[in-house]
Amino acid sequence: MAKPRIYITRPLPEPAMRMLEGAVEYRMWDREDEPVARESLLREVVDVDGVICLITEKMDAEVIDRMRRSTVIAQVAVGIDNIDVAAATRRGIFVTNTPGVLTETTADMGWAILMATARRVVEGDKFTRSGRWKTWELMGFTGQDVHGATLGIIGLGRIGAAIARRARGFAMTILYNNRRPAEALGAEVGARYVSLDDLLRQSDFVMVSCALTAETRHLIAERELGLMKPTAVLVNIARGPIVDQRALYRALVDRKIWAAGL
């Protein structure tokens, strides 16, 4: 019996590659530091049984229509907004993802971004490395206190809950907003459900950790940024388009909010 043929859009970690050895025949884009070229992707998917892809690949209807014998698109990520799921469904192609694999890792990174933004770590590092530091200043790079502040989490899923658990160690008041209240999870992590508007008004730090959907695209835009405190920090660890980048730029320039960590 012939082995399944697959196409891999970027080299995978060695343990994953060992699992594939002998089980399938595969071709692979072998450049780790750049996404597969569009013309190569369109050519390579034509005669394979499945594709393993990353979020850098735009798996749209044009690509999927060429996948004439494929039965699966396996995404090495949680989010699947780069894949036209409707087009895949029409062709009978399953779309899979990897939920839970990077929950704690992403929460760590989110917390690192929050801390670095609040305490102006990157600014201070650049200032020092540029040779501009002369002496200690009373109010130099003081930033914002995290301990005891109010954290608003937009999207209390796996990652949002992991963020909330970390916030408890900083004695923070934790608010959250979801499409619907997650009462059991909220109680577990000590987070209180509020409306999005109330979350934005009350929070010292707003952490975006929801999925990108048609409903959440530009969820945080000019109106929402205008509700935030002028001392507030916005941290986005979710997909970029959830925040209107132009509106965020204007809010920062006009000092409607204090800072953003992206």
TrEMBL record:
It comes from the Bacteria. Belongs to the D-isomer specific 2-hydroxyacid dehydrogenase family. Pfam families: 2-Hacid_dh_C. Residues 112-262 form the D-isomer specific 2-hydroxyacid dehydrogenase NAD-binding domain. GO terms for cellular component: cytosol. InterPro entries: D-isomer_2-hydroxyacid_DH, D-isomer_DH_CS, D-isomer_DH_NAD-bd, NAD(P)-bd_dom_sf. This is D-glycerate dehydrogenase. GO terms for molecular function: glyoxylate reductase (NADPH) activity; hydroxypyruvate reductase [NAD(P)H] activity; NAD binding. CDD domains: GDH.
